[in-house]
Amino acid sequence: MADPGLFDAAAYQVEPAPVEKVSADRRRAQRQAAAIAAGWHPLGLALGRHLRLHPDAPRSDDRTTPGPRCGSCWYREVLGHHNRSYGKCTVEDGARISNGAGTDVRRWWPACRDYSPGDPQLSADAARYIPEAVHA
Ligand code: SF4
C-alpha cells in the first residue's frame, strides 16, 4: 500500500527562474564598461594593472560624448593575423599586445593617459602634426 504522506508537495513546488546565460564576450564588455565608469581604461583589465584614462576622455560608454578616443590615437594600429584584423595598442613596444580578444582596442574606447593624436594612415611624423598647436 502506498504511503499517502502528510500533504501534496507538488502544489508547493516553485519553478526556478531561468538563469540568463551571458557569453564571455558580454561579461568582458560589462567589466570594461565598469572600468571606464571608474576612471580606468578597459585595456588595463587584460594587462592586469590599472591604466588611467586621459584627463579629457569621457567616463562612460556613451560613444557620442566628445573627447579623445583610441580610434584617433597614433598608437592604435590594425594588425593582421590569420586573415583577420585586430585593433591593438602598440605603445610600450608591444607590451599591450596579445593574441587574445582582451587586448583588442575598440575605436570608441575613451583614450588612456598615453593618448597621442594622429592618423595611423599617415607617417609617424605626419601623424604627430597638430595644426592647433602650431598656430596657437
Ligand atoms: S595609447 Fe592610444 S591606442 Fe593605446 S590605449 Fe592609449 S589611447 Fe588607446
Throw out a few tags for this protein:
two-stranded antiparallel ribbon, alpha+beta, 136 residues, single chain, binds iron/sulfur cluster, 4 helices, 21% helix
Rg computed from alpha carbons, rounded to a whole number of angstroms? 24 Å
Separation, N- and C-terminal Cα atoms: 97 Å
What structural class is derived from the secondary structure elements? alpha+beta
Order of helices and strands: HHEEHH
Major β-sheet annotation: 2 strands, antiparallel
Count of beta strands = 2
Shape: elongated
Unreliable runs: none
Ligand roster: iron/sulfur cluster
General description of the model:
The protein has 136 residues and is α+β, with helices and mostly antiparallel strands. It has one domain (22-135). 21% of the residues lie in helices and 9% in strands. It is built from 4 helices and 2 strands, in the order ααββαα. Strands 1-2 form a two-stranded antiparallel ribbon. A hairpin with a 2-residue loop joins strand 1 (76-81) and strand 2. The protein is elongated, with a radius of gyration of 24 Å. It starts with 23 loop residues before the first helix and ends with a helix. The model has no long low-confidence stretch (mean pLDDT 84). Iron/sulfur cluster (SF4) binds at residues 41, 43, 70, 73, 75-76, 89, 91, 105, 111-112, 114-115.
